[in-house]
Amino acid sequence: MVLNMEKQKRQAILGKAREWISANGFSNFTMSKLAKFCGIAKGTLYNYFDNKEDLMVKVVEDRVVEIHREVDEILGGAQDAEEKLRSMIRQGLEFYRDNVDLLIVYANEVKIADCKFPSSATAHGRFLREHLDWFVSRFEQLLAGMGIKRERRLLAYLFHQSLENVMSFNMLFGRELDIDRDANLLYSFYFHGVEAFQ
Amino acid sequence: MVLNMEKQKRQAILGKAREWISANGFSNFTMSKLAKFCGIAKGTLYNYFDNKEDLMVKVVEDRVVEIHREVDEILGGAQDAEEKLRSMIRQGLEFYRDNVDLLIVYANEVKIADCKFPSSATAHGRFLREHLDWFVSRFEQLLAGMGIKRERRLLAYLFHQSLENVMSFNMLFGRELDIDRDANLLYSFYFHGVEAFQ
Amino acid sequence: MVLNMEKQKRQAILGKAREWISANGFSNFTMSKLAKFCGIAKGTLYNYFDNKEDLMVKVVEDRVVEIHREVDEILGGAQDAEEKLRSMIRQGLEFYRDNVDLLIVYANEVKIADCKFPSSATAHGRFLREHLDWFVSRFEQLLAGMGIKRERRLLAYLFHQSLENVMSFNMLFGRELDIDRDANLLYSFYFHGVEAFQ
Amino acid sequence: MVLNMEKQKRQAILGKAREWISANGFSNFTMSKLAKFCGIAKGTLYNYFDNKEDLMVKVVEDRVVEIHREVDEILGGAQDAEEKLRSMIRQGLEFYRDNVDLLIVYANEVKIADCKFPSSATAHGRFLREHLDWFVSRFEQLLAGMGIKRERRLLAYLFHQSLENVMSFNMLFGRELDIDRDANLLYSFYFHGVEAFQ
DNA sequence: CATGAATGAGTATTCATTCAT
DNA sequence: CATGAATGAATACTCATTCAT
Which of A52, A191, C149, D172 has its CA 20 to 30 A from that of D62? Predict the structure, then answer.
């Protein structure tokens, strides 16, 4: 049970970290501030995490584990391909809505290091890379199921980015997220292109 | 000609800065490292730029000025709307090709500050924001000319991001950029959606 | 007792700071030099003081708190006005004797900022200002009690400065401080003017 | 005449330096700012002055030469001793009025270095020291002429400081300088002490 | 003589990490 | 295991001074 306790404490710290980062952003995040926010000593953090980078990766890790589970659920379900696509859009938007601060900030911050360095040595980079590969390969199958013949990998990536782009559009241009409306919009755009908006 | 010399040196420093950032990313960029990389003293940098932020903005500024000019040229030309769309895709891809490292990295880094803090006080934030507003409003007109009735602003933003997404896809997945092929792909995707790939 | 240890260390640093400043002056005082002089790391200073200004204010703060207490004791006592004046002179000279280097230097340095910029935003300036106002208003009452009818504020200020002037005279002209003699001298000068020396 | 030209240029630079310092204070004074303010190159300053300290001493030097001349005129005149004292007070207040920013600031800044280090190695220190010695010894003679028997040196120094103290009182407490009134006040205070204000 | 670009040591401050308790 | 004081390398920026032109 000691291990279990340890795991619980780790999770508690991660929860606090998410809370802090969502409220204050990644850039100002320091180990001291986190320790104080958790009400524990700085040194204690290092009993649960190797270093800051390790902690920061784990901050998003289980969120992504969660999304992976949900994606698998959708893709493994009984819906037809288009229904699955619609479901994934909804699920993606809901996911971003629930983790919006954390994930947008994170996604961008990681990309700094990693777009530039696909073979990046940072833990961030490796982590994002794994997630992307996982997501893209799953989504390629869906596209195959929809009869898409060409460029499935690129299209899968563009799908992944589209979700984020809608979210960042809303933030940048002060538009409220409306899951129903935006899911429909995104479906139309992604499936039929802009000509659907004529 | 003294002024000219000064301008040349400023440009030389900016060139070195671009080189360094392309190779190492924005996040680790420091004035000391740049000075060493340029083979000059730290203080010298401050003879040419007010401060780090000033330098970093100028690193992208003239690149963006260039793209603005080219966009205006296309949009003000005699082509019909679809031709203009195609031209903008080509121009965008070419632009990214020529400045790929710098601009993808930059776009992402700025988004960290600015998605999270849309009213960011950083020069970076203000600069990207201006560019985005400029681009989106121009592109909205083009979409209007193409008979797009709804959500033109969102669609304009998605276009802007699509170019970047194609580039980052190529980088992340080790695919070579082929302007002809990718311009056609992007046109199909953007105009007709994924169903064009069936 | 941990808090006590912290307080002790803070006091130890302040003591070292006073020692350094007394030996080398305020103008050349830097955090690096102090750290080296204390035999600790630069960062450690910042565990005990918010910043340089904070430290520099605290360097004099408790000394001045001490003098305020003593002044209140004298003024609130049972002596008649002239006796109180004599006591304050003695107390002032003793105080300067015990803190001579630090306080003379400090008083002058602050005046630079504050004569020139009376509404100075520096913590130094605010601190000296408060002290001056406090002292002058207290001393005005004493002068009133002595039957002084005009220009009490100016005379109070001149008293405050006289103490410092005697000390700096001794330092500049290599004269030994003799509390009895100098207190009498100052009393005669302040109360009767130079004609008392005829 | 070359030497003359050189002297003129030196004087012109000193005038500009005084102008700048009076307006902006000593603390922010830099060689670059002065050069720009003079409309000449930084390096040129070093053709006329050995270094910054040299320049800063010369900034006050001829002002003090002037006051020395005036003091000699008064002391060498036909007035009786008390009249001479009155004249010196007026002359001192007028002098401070005309050079108030420069001299108060300077006097204080120098004292930082020099109260602390009577044997200071700085040019500032040496210069102030010389001036003080000069003034005090002259004024001692005046006091002797007034029949002052004891402590003439100290009293001379206190006189010197009194002038400055009245000026700084006016600045700190927002009181307007009134030469007639303040000269009388200072005479009363210095000659008869505070009891004259009963 | 005049220039002003270049220098580099120096400033205050931050923060991930360590380690003795 | 928990602590948190201590560390010191790193950061952006300044400025008196030099020297090649």
Answer: D172
Is residue B73 a contact partner of residue B143, using CB atoms and an 8 Å limit?
Answer: no
Nearest to C135 by CA among C67, C185, C62: C67
- Report how far residue B185's alpha carbon sits from residue B179's, in angstroms, rounded to the nearest whole number: 10
Instruction: Give C-chain residues touching D171 at CB under 8 angstroms.
Output: 115, 118
The answer to whether C24 touches C102, Cβ cutoff 8 Å, is no
In this complex, which residue's CA is closest to the C1' atom of nucleotide E18? A43
Q: Region A28-44: what's the mean pLDDT?
A: 93
Q: Is the domain of D37 the same as that of D60?
A: no
Per-residue pLDDT of C75-108, as tens digits, reads 999 999 999 999 999 999 998 888 766 665 555 5
pLDDT value at residue D119: 37
For chain C, say whether D185 makes contact (Cβ under 8 Å).
yes
Q: What is the CATH number of the domain that holds A104?
A: 1.10.357.10
> What does DSSP assign to residue A196?
G
- For D60, half-sphere exposure in the C-beta direction (CA atoms, 13 angstrom radius) is 29
- Side-chain-side CA neighbours of C82 within 13 Å: the count stands at 9
Cross-chain Cβ contact B151/A197 below 8 Å: yes
pTM over 0.85: no
Per-residue confidence at B124, pLDDT binned at 50, 70, 90?
low
Q: Which chain C residue's Cα is nearest to D22?
A: C116
**Preferred mutation among D53, D84, D110, D112 to probe C, highest tally of C CBs within 10 A:** D112
- Asked if B135 is an interface residue toward chain A (Cβ–Cβ < 8 A), one would say no
CB contact, 8 Å: A89 with chain B? no
Query: B143 Cβ partners below 8 Å, 6+ apart?
Result: A194, B152, B155, B156
Q: And the tokens for B104? A: 């993808």
Encode pLDDT of B4-51 as tens digits: 788 889 999 999 998 888 777 777 789 999 999 999 999 999 999 999
Q: Which structural domain range is residue D19 located in?
A: 1-49
Determine which of B105, B158, B166, B170 to mutate to test the interface with A (most A C-beta atoms within 10 Å): B158
- Separation of alpha carbons A48 and A55, rounded Å: 9
Quick one: pLDDT at residue B99? Answer: 78
* Judgement on whether residues D117 and D72 belong to the same structural domain of the protein: yes
**A131-165 tens-digit pLDDT:** 889 999 999 999 999 999 999 999 999 999 999 88
From the CA of A47 to the C1' of F1: give the distance in Å. 8
Residues C86 and C4 in one domain: no
Whether A42 and A86 map to the same domain: the answer is no
Q: How far apart are CA D38 and CA C105, in angstroms?
A: 33
What is the least distance, in Å, from the CA of A12 to any CA of chain B?
24
Query: Residue D27: its pLDDT value, please?
Result: 72
How remote is the C-alpha of D20 from its chain's centroid? 18
Residue C65, exposed/middle/buried by CB under 10 A (0-12, 13-18, 19+)? Answer: exposed
